[in-house]
């Protein structure tokens, strides 16, 4: 009896109890339940056939073996030719025609497309996975495995898929020392101490993830480029990375520095029209292609944020781009010239200045002047990956120039992997936005960037990924959905957000309906939720623009050259970007779109203060005033995260323990931060506008006891900058090495209460805290988190909840803080609830 019970328990838990690291992301190939596995064992032949030794086809074969072993617990046999036996046959159309003509399809496939077919010969049923290119065959292999993992039928296949555009690339902002600009999942998988890492196995793992999505190229170094990448000594490092990615069909792209001819090339100038400079780029391209013949090309950030560019030598972006483009051309290479050109020393006092205008202003007059292998790489919005921006007008402007859209997978302004924000719905809005660029036809951004609207030879979609060495790749399991979603959209932008997230969830966490429903709904609402508590209506994120782009600093964007101004004052908020009254940015769009943004009435609420400066009492389409909406949305946002936490908790035992615990910790942290944001932004606008929250919440925090108002022993009160980063605008910290104490008096009704401690966990030390009630130790902890600040501010604001404490009137609640390193055991408040 006991043994039976034990056996049943054992059978039920094994898959779940196994801790999963997240390393395999959506390619886990978790065992199917026995009934499904049996069905597939009948449908999937026991043999895999591939032809030749080409590396990409070898990857396809090993992936098929791995997937079938994992999901169906079956070891496929591998052969190099077909026989009368049923088989999974993987190969290019040409290989099939040559070695198994009876299985070859008639006709051809475009680009890296694939075709999955069931072919019956003499009653024997084989599965043929083919493409015009090896890549296509590899993509088909992943597609077939995905179908099995998702429980789709594979018995009568005839599925052909052609990617929407040919450029489906990733960028990385990795420095050669191994650090990553705007990377939140650990150190670089590519670089260490100025060289390619000794162990590049994570690069191979990554190539596999990219290939599973049909991504066919990646840059491997920061667009803020180190000129050393073009030196002969560095070339072997590039070769090693390219060799590692090649079996996955992923081409390498290099970020280059426009100043290289002078800084590392021994010339006296980098003027693109100088014959020496022209020769420099040509020779460089020749050398690199000799070593890496399938290099994808170069990407360049010029004349932006301190990078040198053609303006320094009186040349245009087209002069610059074409010289490098022509050097790459004989090798089939592409050149990506970033449209992210702007002046970060702009004068904010001039009401006509507007960073949003920069891309269009820079490139409009150059349309048609770029060579055919040159692309303008345009960020989705006119500013910089903010939580809400309109589509960049430049997509609609360029007719005779190739373009690609640049999306940001790494969550720079979106919570940096510490907040769950699923970006696919945001990307979909941009990709589907009709720029009205050609009369009589739909001209959504996706069609424009793919080159379909104006018949350009090529185009596509690029995502800034910045994965790191952490096993979860992004520092948060939920963030992997952004890479997955990016890849799926790059392949097919017509997929819906729901389709994408549903695939991702089931591949990543299994198909328990409760898990699927919960994860899908968290992901699908997460962008709106994040926007709600970090500044809606087109305010953009209110993160610290001049600092870490993470914590809250409502005015950081104002009165500086970076140009992301919202001009909040006593009367109203918003940046006037109309033609009639403002910077004229709205007029950069084609007439129908320009007209929509020109008037307050027709501008969607989500972008209202991006385009217009309006009074706080302005009514939105819902009838609510702007100010009340600002308050409500911040409370709604924080409430939504509270619900994510409780919904996730209901999944205990349904998700493996490790990822369950890690995602729970992430969501709990996010909830804590959402309260900081809620209170900070709401109080800022309350103070600014003087208009009270009709629901009485803003400025009123029942149960909250400010540390600065309590009895302090050793602790000192300090003001926080910016003030909205701390409750009551003040905090306390401990200048005494041996420790300090703060004592609160409980004056409420007796009973069991939860005590929430709001403290500061900076990244330069590990302070200790002890909480006592009436002299009895209730909790102790160490502040070990690593957030991007060494200061007491909203970024370091952390939260500890001590549940179920018995309190009597008059009880003393005492917190002892012991500083360590640069961490001064700061505290903001306690809150007694429950
Ligand atoms: O968003 C900004 C980032 C910079 C980045 C720049 C760019 C690589 O804050 O870190 O630099 O954009 O896209 O060039």
Q: Structural class, from secondary structure content?
A: alpha/beta
Task: State mean pLDDT (0 to 100 scale).
Answer: 96
| Strands, total number | 29
Number of helices: 22
C-alpha Rg (nearest Å): 29 Å
- State the low-pLDDT regions, or none: 1-15
Helix content: 25-40%
Strand order of the largest sheet: 7-10-11-12-13-14-15-16
Choose one word for the global shape: globular
Termini gap: 44 Å
Major sheet summary line: 8 strands, parallel, barrel
- Beta-strand residue percentage: 15-25%
Query: What are the distinct ligands in this entry?
Result: 4-O-methyl-beta-D-glucopyranuronic acid
What does this entry look like structurally?
The chain is an alpha/beta fold. Helices cover 32% and strands 18% of the residues. The structure holds 4-O-methyl-beta-D-glucopyranuronic acid. The site of 4-O-methyl-beta-D-glucopyranuronic acid has 10 residues, from loops.
Short description:
By secondary structure, this protein is an alpha/beta fold. Helices cover 32% and strands 18% of the residues.
């Amino acid at each position: 009896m006991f043994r039976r019970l034990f056996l049943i328990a054992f059978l039920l838990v094994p898959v779940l109890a196994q801790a999963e690291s997240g390393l395999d992301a959506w390619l886990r190939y978790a065992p199917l339940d026995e009934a499904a596995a049996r069905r597939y064992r009948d449908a999937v032949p026991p043999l895999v056939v591939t032809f030749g030794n080409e590396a990409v086809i070898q990857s396809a074969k090993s992936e098929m073996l791995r997937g079938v072993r994992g999901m169906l617990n079956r070891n496929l046999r591998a052969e190099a030719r077909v026989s009368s036996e049923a088989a999974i046959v993987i190969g290019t159309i040409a290989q099939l025609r040559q070695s198994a003509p009876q299985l070859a399809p008639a006709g051809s496939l475009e680009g890296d497309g694939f075709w999955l077919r069931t072919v019956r010969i003499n009653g024997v049923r084989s599965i043929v996975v083919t493409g015009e290119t090896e890549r296509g065959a590899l993509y088909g292999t992943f597609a077939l495995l995905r179908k099995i993992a998702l429980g789709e039928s594979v018995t009568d296949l005839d599925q052909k898929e052609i990617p929407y555009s040919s450029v489906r690339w990733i960028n990385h902002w990795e420095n050669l020392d191994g650090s990553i600009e705007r990377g939140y999942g650990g150190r670089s998988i590519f670089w260490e101490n100025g060289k390619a890492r000794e162990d590049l196995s994570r690069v191979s793992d990554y190539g596999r993830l990219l290939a599973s999505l049909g991504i066919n190229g990646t840059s491997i170094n920061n667009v803020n480029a180190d000129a050393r990448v073009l030196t002969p000594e560095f070339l072997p490092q590039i070769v090693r990375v390219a060799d590692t990615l090649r079996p996955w069909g992923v081409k390498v792209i290099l970020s280059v520095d426009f100043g290289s001819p002078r800084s590392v090339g021994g010339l006296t100038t980098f003027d693109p029209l100088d014959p020496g400079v022209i020769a420099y780029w040509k020779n460089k391209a020749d050398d690199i292609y000799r070593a890496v013949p399938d290099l994808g090309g170069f990407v360049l950030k010029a004349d932006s944020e301190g990078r040198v560019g053609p303006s320094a030598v009186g040349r245009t972006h087209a002069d610059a781009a074409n010289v490098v483009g022509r050097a790459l051309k004989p090798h089939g290479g592409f050149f990506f010239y970033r449209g992210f050109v702007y002046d970060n020393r702009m004068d904010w006092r001039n009401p006509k200045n507007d960073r949003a205008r920069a891309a269009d202003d820079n490139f409009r007059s150059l349309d048609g002047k770029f060579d055919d292998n040159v692309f303008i790489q345009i960020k989705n919005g006119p500013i910089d990956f903010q939580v809400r921006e309109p589509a960049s007008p430049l997509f609609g402007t360029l007719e005779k120039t190739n373009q690609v859209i640049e999306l940001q997978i790494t969550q720079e302004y979106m919570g940096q992997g510490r907040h769950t924000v699923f970006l696919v719905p945001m990307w979909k809005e941009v990709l589907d936005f009709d720029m009205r660029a050609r009369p009589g036809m739909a001209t959504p951004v996706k069609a424009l960037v793919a080159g379909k609207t104006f018949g350009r030879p090529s185009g596509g979609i690029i995502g800034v990924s910045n994965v790191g060495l952490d096993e979860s790749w992004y520092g948060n399991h939920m963030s992997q959905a952004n890479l997955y979603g990016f890849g799926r959209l790059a392949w097919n932008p017509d997929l819906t957000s729901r389709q994408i997230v549903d695939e991702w969830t089931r591949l990543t966490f299994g198909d328990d309906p409760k898990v699927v429903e919960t994860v899908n709904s968290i992901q699908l609402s997460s962008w709106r939720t994040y926007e709600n508590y970090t500044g809606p209506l087109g305010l953009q994120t209110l993160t610290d623009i001049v600092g870490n782009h993470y914590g809250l600093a409502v005015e950081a964007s104002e009165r500086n050259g970076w140009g992301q101004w919202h001009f909040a004052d006593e009367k109203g908020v918003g940046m006037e970007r109309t033609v009639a009254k403002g910077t004229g940015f709205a007029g950069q769009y084609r007439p129908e779109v320009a007209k929509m943004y020109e008037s307050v009435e027709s501008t969607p609420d989500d972008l209202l203060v991006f385009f217009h400066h309006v009074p706080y009492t302005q009514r939105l389409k819902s009838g609510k005033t702007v100010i009340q909406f600002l308050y409500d949305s911040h409370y709604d946002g924080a409430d939504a995260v509270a619900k994510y936490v409780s919904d996730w908790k209901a999944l205990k035992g349904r998700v493996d323990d490790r990822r369950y615990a890690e995602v729970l910790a992430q969501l709990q942290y996010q909830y804590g931060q959402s309260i900081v944001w809620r209170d900070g932004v709401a109080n800022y606008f309350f103070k600014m506008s003087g208009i009270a929250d009709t629901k009485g919440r803003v400025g009123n925090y029942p149960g909250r006891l400010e540390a600065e108002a309590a009895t302090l022993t050793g602790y000192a009160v300090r003001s926080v900058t910016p003030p909205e980063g701390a409750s009551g605008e003040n905090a306390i910290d401990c200048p005494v090495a041996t420790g300090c104490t703060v004592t609160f008096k409980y004056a409420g009704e007796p009973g069991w209460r939860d005590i929430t401690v709001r403290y500061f966990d900076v990244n330069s030390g590990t302070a200790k805290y002890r909480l006592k009630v009436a002299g009895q130790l209730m909790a102790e902890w160490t502040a070990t988190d690593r957030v991007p600040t060494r200061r007491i501010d909203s970024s370091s604001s952390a939260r500890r909840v001590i549940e179920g404490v018995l309190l009597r009137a008059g009880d003393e609640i005492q917190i002892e803080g012991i500083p360590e390193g640069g961490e001064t055991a700061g505290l903001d408040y306690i809150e007694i609830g429950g």
